[in-house]
Every structure is written in structure tokens, then in C-alpha cells.
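Consider today's protein:

***
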Amino acid sequence: MLWPFELHRSYHRRNDIHARFGGQQQGGISTPANAPGIFIFTGHGAGHVGYQDVFEADGSFRYTGQGQLGDMQMISGNRAICDHVQNGKDLLLFQQTKKGGPVRFEGLYVCGGWEMEQQPDMNGQPRQAIVFTLVPQNGLSIEAEDLAAEAPTDLPLAELKRRALKAALAPTAASSRVALANVRARSKAVRDYVLARAAGLCEACRSPAPFLTSSGQPYLEAHHIHKLSDGGPDHPASVAALCPNCHRQAHFGADQAILNNKLLERVRAPFEKASEAKMGREKNAI
């Protein structure tokens, strides 16, 4: 799915977001059942009901979870944020600047971890609040220069896949600094596997990579299939290795929706077959 929202553009929450994608129209966390995303809202009035959200200097966003009274629990919307990568859900952040006003799209984020922090609830009573560290996905892109300088990995494909799947598991409690490092490490682990899986061939047109980097690697780009801009849930079943031409086509081509759907089917097939095989073994063992 390609999200229609433009960075820093304002939208009417009910008409432009929920009428099209569903999800709860009240509260800070909206989890539409039939859309591959979770909508997070912050801004006007948040501090008055016990929520303390803040953009950090490093670009990350500390977002207080769901629950107005008493200690917060890792359930409902909080669990949805924590598990969004392995569930294939994007995190879309919107900020409201005035009561009843439009919400401004702040971008796509990924959850790197969370902490328990003492904050007042809506009655001013101290309680343990869940505070997520959300990292902007546009800050996770690995530039072509970085790829060219990296030495090719000599790990077998199965090991790279194991590391990528492990990296895509739900984050655990972590300081904001550790959370940021975790997200970057996860992005690299998934990218390393996806490029190795492609074996030098574009996963869209199946043509060889257009050139070799200075370190001898076939040059392909990691494409996150769900959205119009780079970034997205760093799960190997949602990322494809593309030549630069197909990568641009996947973002800007007239047939981008068709191409992305085909890519999603192609990269998910091995994981679906593995899941079916596992279920068959479990059934036979009963």
C-alpha cells in the first residue's frame, strides 16, 4: 500500500484519515483493522491529560503510550506500536497544533524500544508510563556511498536470514540511545539479507545489477514495499532489492501499485511456504 500523505501537510483527521482507512477516531493511537498502518496523534492538549511527548535533538520522538489513569500496560494500542514491525504495520505520526484543528503529517517512524517513566496521570497522580522511542525512517536510509565502502559479507544466506528475522522481533525495554542504535542495526541486518537473497539480480526485472561497487558488490537498492518514500517496517518479507531504475519506478511509475503488489508477493513467498511447512510438521506431530 502507498500512503497518500505528504510530509508536513495538514489533514482533517476524520475526513482524510479515518473515513478512508478506518481506525478509532478518538485518542492518540488508532489501529485500523484493514490498513497496514497505525496512526499516532500528538500535540494539542496532550500534556493536560498526562502525556508528555517530545521531539529530541537527534530526530527521535519520545511518545507516551495509551492509558490515562494508573500504571500503563503493554496492551491494546501500546502493544500494537511495540509489535508493528513483525506485524507489517507502518507507524504514521500526526501532530495537532490547536484544539479541533487539522493534524499535520510528521512522517513515518519505527519503534526502537521503550522505557517505563514516572509521569502524572490525568488526575495528577504519579504513575508508571510507557514511553516509546520512535525513530524517523527517513534517517535510516543507507547512502550509496556507505554501501560502496562496505566489504561484502561472507556469511551464508541462511545465517543472514536468521539475523534479519531476529532483528525484526518486537523491541524490548531500552533507553532512547540504545533504541536508536537498535533500529539502525535492525535496518542493516535486514538490508544485508535482502541484498544477499537477490544474488546480484533485481527482484523486479530480474536483470543483473547495473554495476559493481568499489568493494566488489553488485549495486542494488533496498526498497521498502509498503510506501511511497523509503523506509518502512524493517522485515525481510517487506523489503526487496531493486536496480535503481526499478526502484524509481516502484516509487514514481504510473504502474507503481501493480509493481509493488507483485514485489510483495515475490518476497513473501518463501516466508509463507516456510510457515505452511512448519504448520504441517506440527499437525503431523499431534
About this structure: Residues 10-137 form a domain with the PUA domain-like fold (CATH 2.30.280.10). Residues 227-232 have pLDDT under 50 and may be disordered.
